[in-house]
Amino acid sequence: MIRLQRVGRRHDPSYRVVVTEKASGPRAGKSVENLGHYDARLEKGKDFIVKTERVKYWLSVGAQPSGTVHNLLVREGIISGKKRDVRPSKTIKKTETAQTVQAEQTPQTITETVQTTNEEVKIEDKVEEAAQEASV
User: How many Å apart are CA 83 and CA 11, to the nearest integer?
Assistant: First the structure.
């Protein structure tokens, strides 16, 4: 996988463009090859420097670029295609609302079962009292 590895200090983001195994994280430091760098604070045109031939080689071998690297490669004209939407998806919010709805329904369900149980106990008590009165 071709991805960015942050090497900048605090409040000064700069990244290496590296080829890594997909299973290893970008912070692990284990990269197969360093392809270039990206400095997010510089103006466009000077911010992304990469070895074009090596990027094309890794893509031909089957390496997949991350979303941001893909967009940078499209912007520089190294690969063709549309840019990807790399913003976080909204499905996270949907799952949170689903959990909230379930959490709201749970107390009502517990209350209903308690009420049902109390009614059953009252009915059983009345049956026992009626049986005792009949036997006396």
Answer: 26
